[in-house]
Amino acid sequence: MKKITFILLIFFVLTSCISKKSAISKAINTTLASSFYKNQFTGILVIDAKTKDTIYNQDSHKYFIPASNTKIFTLFAALKTLPKKAPAIRYINIKDTLYFEGTGDPSFLHPYLKDSTALNFLKNQSNLAFVSGNFQDEKYGAGWAWDDYQWYYSPERNALPINGNVVVSYKNTELVVSPPYFKDSVIEILHKDNRNEFSNIFYYPPQSKDTLETPFITSLQTSTSILEQALGKKISTVVTMPIGNKETLYGIETDTLYKRMMHESDNFIAEQLLFMAASELKDTLNSNLIRTHILENELQDLAQQPRWVDGSGLSRYNLFTPQNMVNVLDRLYVMVSEKRLYTIFPAGGLSGTLKNRFAGDKQPYIYAKSGSLSNNYCLSGYLLTKSGKTLIFSFMNNHFRESLSDERLRLEQMLHTLRDNY
């Protein structure tokens, strides 16, 4: 009798699961069959986080431009490589001179992070020599739009960022400029651009009350001059570090960097995290080094090999599949506690780029990373159902001509279907 009861219980459970999946598939299929999706490309994969059962799958093996969903891979690489506190600089003290090099740490005098660990350390040294030769990469990522040079989301990359590699200008009775080094380079004039394309000449509208964040052109001379002014002392420059055992100065908590990268979709922090991760492997700061290492050593079993070219997703050269995204999200779910993971990811209706969308009834039901470029929108992360299940999902939408708000609205309807029916 007990055996028959057990068999019947299993039968009802399986029937219920099949029924739920069938209802979900029917609802999502109906949405995707509408004329709205006729001329765009959509890939979807949804799995149960515990059982790994596939709840819904459409073209999840196909490649899509991920936009800022790329940051999910960057987060994985950083969590696999970086310690709890960010390596701020590496240095060797020889006789009376401290030789130091950057690790790519983006927090040094960052306008929002405001970490002063390295600044205070360097202030206490007598003679300083900045070692510049460890950066072996380009200022911009492959496939970045050339005309983004003046916009806040596209700062140049380097070994020792200062102030997020942007000039911050705002009015407070008079014009305030940070770093102060650029005070005389900001011209109050109505201009179609924020900065001259080929020089560090910036424009601020006289009647504006906005805060402008404009990337500056980086160079060894510019970085050294800004640092000299901040420290109040001269700094010599050399190309290579003297022979010896380098020490590391640790600064800000890396989770602080991860949260800003994911919540604000901060492209600069994403790019610099890859350099920091590379610095943990070798002396060379090169983002391809860490991307290759992660793909070959940690993600070698992905069903489809992604094309991963930058840390932020600014490049349209990036190609990932929904299966790629769900695979890495699943690994993160196993690696990191739910509490910590859901703090790092934006929460629907509550924080970051999802603050004004995908809200739950009383509490968030979505913890996910969005990604948008013109005509592309992706959302990948974790969904908490009303029945208490956790789903891992990736919705990737490319090449649509409809409005982004309409795209999000239909995606939200599909997410509600998953939340309410599984």
Automatic annotation (TrEMBL):
Gene Ontology terms: biological process: peptidoglycan metabolic process; proteolysis
Signal sequence bounds: 1-23
Keywords recorded for this protein, A-Z: Carboxypeptidase, Hydrolase, Protease, Signal
Pfam family membership, one: Peptidase_S13
GO molecular function, one term: serine-type carboxypeptidase activity
UniProt cross-references to InterPro entries, sorted A to Z: Beta-lactam/transpept-like (IPR012338), Peptidase_S13 (IPR000667)
Matching PROSITE patterns: PROKAR_LIPOPROTEIN (PS51257)
Family that this chain belongs to: Belongs to the peptidase S13 family.
Protein name per its UniProtKB record: D-alanyl-D-alanine carboxypeptidase / D-alanyl-D-alanine-endopeptidase (Penicillin-binding protein 4)
Organism the protein comes from: Maribacter arcticus
